């Protein structure tokens, strides 16, 4: 895989899950310092991520209210397609997330083996229940040649 210019991280779970995604985002930024790293997250979590130095753009996805249903999914998919991402790293495991990623036109898509909709990923990482959530998230970037201490 060539060095990505545009990376998308998709995490729309609970606020704590978004926080536990930050070490992965920071290592992505360290490995690819010139890449724009955008994050799709919930409106509440977007406040938490605002001004984080490793994040270029926060894309708010209000999956429960204003963007719920197929119409919201299609609008988000269209928005992501226009950004021409090279890589998506997806700790969120819902079918809706997998579906959006699959339709987004992103060339390299990495998700967990327990995700609903693994057929939408071209790299699937084993989800190990015995690991802490931070370590599980970090396992998603190992296929990119990122070593995790």
CATH structural class = Alpha Beta
Unreliable spans: none
Whole-number total of structural domains:
1
The CATH level-2 architecture is identified as: 3-Layer(aba) Sandwich
Question: What is the distance, rounded to the nearest whole angstrom, between the alpha carbons of the first and last residues?
Answer: 22 Å
Report the portion of residues in β strands.
15-25%
Structural class: alpha/beta
Biggest sheet, spatial arrangement of strands: 3-2-1-4-5-6
Main pleated sheet: 6 strands, parallel
Apparent shape = globular
Output the CATH homologous superfamily.
Glycogen Phosphorylase B
The value of Rg in angstroms is 14 Å
The helix content is 25-40%
Spell the H/E element sequence. EHHEHEHEHEEH
Q: Examine the coordinates and then state which fold CATH places here, giving the name of the CATH topology.
A: Rossmann fold
Mean pLDDT over all positions: 94
Q: How are the SSEs placed, and which strands pair?
A:
Blueprint: E1 6-10, H1 15-19, H2 22-31, E2 36-41, H3 43-49, E3 57-60, H4 69-83, E4 87-90, H5 95-103, E5 108-112, E6 123-125, H6 133-139
Parallel strand pairs: 1-2, 1-4, 2-3, 4-5, 5-6
């Amino acid at each position: 895989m060539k060095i990505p210019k545009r990376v998308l991280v998709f995490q729309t779970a609970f606020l704590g899950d978004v926080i536990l995604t930050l070490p992965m985002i920071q290592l992505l930024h360290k490995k690819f310092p010139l890449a724009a790293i955008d994050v799709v997250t919930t409106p509440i979590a977007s406040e938490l991520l605002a001004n984080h130095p490793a994040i270029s753009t926060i894309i708010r996805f209000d999956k429960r209210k204003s963007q719920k249903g197929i119409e919201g999914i299609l609008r988000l998919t269209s928005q992501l397609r226009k950004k021409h991402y090279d890589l998506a790293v997806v700790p969120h495991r819902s079918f809706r997330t997998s579906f959006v990623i699959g339709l987004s036109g992103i060339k390299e898509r990495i998700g967990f083996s327990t995700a609903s909709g693994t057929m939408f990923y071209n790299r699937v990482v084993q989800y190990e229940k015995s690991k802490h959530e931070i370590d599980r998230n970090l396992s998603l970037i190992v296929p990119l040649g990122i070593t995790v201490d």
